[in-house]
Predict the structure.
Amino acid sequence: MNFIEKLIAGSAVILAGSVLFSSCAKDNPFDGSAEGTLELSTAVKGELQVDTRAIGNDEMKSLRDNCVIYIENAKGVIRKYKGVENVPSQIKLTVGEYVVEGWTGDSVSASYDKKFYRGYRKFQLSEGTTPLTLNCNIANVVTSVDPVSLNVDLKNLKVTFSHSRGSLEFDNSNIPTSKGYFMMPNADKDLSYEIEGILSDGSPYHKEGKIEGVKRAHEYVVRLSADQPPVTQGGALIRIEIEDIPIIQEDIEIFPAPALIGSEFDIRDQVVSTPGNFTDINVVMRGYFGFDKGSVIMDFSSNFTGIESGLNITQGDVQDQLRALGIVVEEEETYDDAPSLDEGKVKVERFHITFTKAFLDALPESDEEYCVTVTGTDDRHNVGSGTLHVANTEAAIVRKSPVGVDESDLKKNLLSVGATTATLTGYIYDNSAANYGIKYREAGTETWQRVYPAGNTRATGYYRVSLSGLKQNTKYEYAPFCDGYDEAQPVSFTTEAMFTIPNASMEEWSTYSASTMLGTRTVTLPGAGGNKSQSFWGSGNEGAATASKTLTTRSTDMFNSGESSARLASAEAVGILAAGNLFVGEYVKTDGTDGVLSIGRSYNGSHPKKLSVWVNYRPGAGVKVKDGNDEFVPAGFKGGNDHGQIYVALLSGAMEIRTKASNRQVFDPNGQNVLAYGQVTWTEAFGPDGGLAKVEIPIEYKEAAKTRKPTHLAIVVTASKYGDYFSGSSQSVMYVDDFELVYE
């Protein structure tokens, strides 16, 4: 969440320090190991040493504001910040090896004005404090033509620089003022140049070449000169010189200015609570090289009554004065390693300032936030400051943005993100916000797509947008925006991976041996390998094998793709109907003449919209109902057409099915572990004669699916829907092929 949202009502307890960092934490870096503190300083160095035109203040501000900084370890990105000013003064991480990387500007193949800056450093974080500077230097290969080239007796001079993805031309109009900025494709190591013009005798001049092994942050200057007298085609030569000028020096280690740091909270965020419910708030003013010759000044906002400002807390008598008020100041002095310094050590002085619970609880309720600004001047005259912001009423709460999003919403509703779709929620905190919406992009790309809510949701305080056409199993970033506000720190989600149903086209078949009451039988299995426990699909063939029947077989009579389909044929065995069936799961055992099945196989947790399958169904007539089971079948079923059925379910665990009357357990679509369900039932023939037709079965999700991910997929296909009750027609036949989960 990129704003502070705290509601104060009655005696609600809101802990001090409940604040949000502006960073995006991708992973928890702490695993119980020792910790260290990174103090990162980031600089964008944008002025070419050979160019007298420095970057303007506005452009530099834009580069700093749009600079993206990543901190990575072996697990991947664990911290991400946008904007140099949004990098915390201190970053706590587990000790170990890291990489910090940053970039800003426009990465364009070839441009006269679009520049790109990049910084990259590996570092070892140890216990204690590790200062580090990341300089984002220009990453372009820069080209130019020395204006002295215009003095050569060559009319219509044109110099073209190019690589495989772009080119730039220089002529009389822009040679004196322009430079070219190239981002080199990975496959290109050389930059080509082409020089064209008209010689004094009217003949054309043309010369091509390559600048081999070009390097980023280097400027390649083409300079033309000519022997005297003026050049002719067959006489004197035009000399081509190419000068390679490094643009930026290597990184140097510098130390940040004094800074005020919040202990376990970001000093930039407001601390919110109510009188009586505060806890101690701790801040630290840290300065390299110490404050012995400098000062640490504390200033209080005007709503602090009876406390003077301009207090220098390096003085003992001032510390005593503050302690009497409930503000405790403690000094700490250490020496950190600094290899870049001659003495090898740098003095680090810290003033730990504790605003006690007693002091905070005693503050009168105020409609304005209480502010304490601490300014430090170190011994090298570097000045830095920070401000503690405290609100003890709802009216004093300062929200950072007119609109916002909260990525935790996606965890509250697991249906919000699918494989190709997402529904995102934004919040409205300022009623004046106009043209609000959510922007999104694939992580690692630059271009944002903007989506506006379909209707006016201002009265509800939130809005939703729906995204479609996303890539499966892909990370996306998103952020809120409205008129005048487009600076929110992006948060992220990852789309689900689509699930591919094994043996969906019914091409894999095998057999296995099973023991029955009448001896060992060979059983046909809808899967390769002959192992029913490992096959994704199962059938009732093992139960029917007692009567030497095979209900579900591979068929080449009709199919949609490949060479075969599954044929499900109901039959009578020892006077009892056995339904032709196919299901995701395993036939566990035969209990007398009854079956025990396990329905459902492990699943990746995704949320498809439909199940697609190709079907041909021919129901048998003259349905028989086993004695005693009339209550389980619909009225009029007996003697009529059989019913065929396919159902799909997403489950939180496999389900056991038993057909024995004394302990019967059939599938219940409303069962507690059924998170989603869809079915189709046929009472008449379906599909053309001799062919299959496609059917799509919508999957409906239950409320429980918002908070529980499915762990198992179940698909059950039967030529006789009431086969669990041994009722149906022995003439019913169904063919199925090409099962597919459909994601929209």
Summary: The helical segments are 57-65, 316-325, 357-361, 409-412, 541-544. The longest strand covers residues 128-138. The chain has a mean pLDDT of 85. The radius of gyration is 37 Å.
